[in-house]
Prior knowledge:
CATH topology of the domain at 2-94: Rossmann fold
Shape: globular
Helix content: 25-40%
Distance between the termini: 24 Å
Order of helices and strands: HEEHHHHEHEEHEEEEHEEHHEEEEHEHE
Strand order of the largest sheet: 11-10-7-8-9-12-16-14
Largest sheet: 8 strands, antiparallel
Structural class: alpha+beta
Amino acid sequence: MEAHTYRGTCLANVAAHYDVVLISGAAPTWEKEILLDYEIADPTDQAALTEAGRALAERHDLAGVMTWTEWYLVPVARLARQLGLPTTAPEVLQGCRNKHTSRSLFARHGVPSATSVSVRAEREAADAARRIGYPVVLKPAAHAASMGVVRVDTAGELPAAYAFAAQAAGHGVENTQVLVEEYLDGPEVSVECVTHQGQTSVVAVTRKTVGCAPYFEELAHVVDATDPMLATVAPAAVAAIDALGISDGVSHVEIRVVDGRARLVEVNARIAGDMISHLVHLATGVDLARAASDIACGQAPDLTPTRSQAAAIRLIYPAYSGTLTERRLDGDFPWLERVTFQREVGDPLVLPPHGDMFSARIGYLITTGSSAAAAQARSTEAYRHLTVQITPA
């Protein structure tokens, strides 16, 4: 359900232009009607993934391999290399996945970032936080979706915060360390970029609303085709991609703007989650999923804008953990592009620190408008007609 809810549009857009074969950890369900063929294998198991890829290559003339899943970036790049297909080097993607390596490369190439220290124990984290100065941010060195990321304002908060971050870091594939980082105090954005043969084009900027403090759950996003913020953040995003050595693909570059200056949070060498690629498509007409598939097949992507408007997503969270007892949207709004519920009545909902976006989100609604302000106003209006009831845990 999660994949269909957030990645269904990506797969549909790719399948509109290419025959698609899939490697998945389970038999396809909703995907099956648009697939030419598939193999079942764990994409994080390199040997199993390679075997499945070679089996598909024997049955079909494969033109490219791609993924939009953070945890699969490195093994899928290795598969592409083994099959002789276009890819950013697996070693480069390992650097993207390991945020400590990324910070080191940013520093080497003069890309403005955050002070960061990699630690393996609570005592080391406390020492690093004292040197950096509170507030700090603790995060896993190799994870995704803001899982295990927490702000720490005082030394007294550090032990619990370190335990929270370390638990999430323990699930990392490339690295299980925790990072202690300078807190970047400023609005958060992401820059959606496309790189082909080493040349990067900036397509759009996404403004974010982050909440559930001291955690960093993303509550809303808006993309405006004419956002003036693009000029401020685009050079830093391109510099970060160049520093990491990304040669091909779509990237989701997270930035905080501190005192009017862009400073890097991280580079995700994949299409953004949270339906951001769909927002970009609605706002600009540029199809990032199509661009990613074109690049994976060695073709130059078409990034010509065909629209100029704004699109916003409001992610629906409960006010507290508990059991979902009612959820509905009353009213008919012509500017409501979609409302999607990913939880059913009776489902448990668990907020951080005991849960994350996968255990807490109820769904989302997407609106469009002539500007970011208009799209967000419509999002607020639709949200007012939303009924969500929770029985506390």
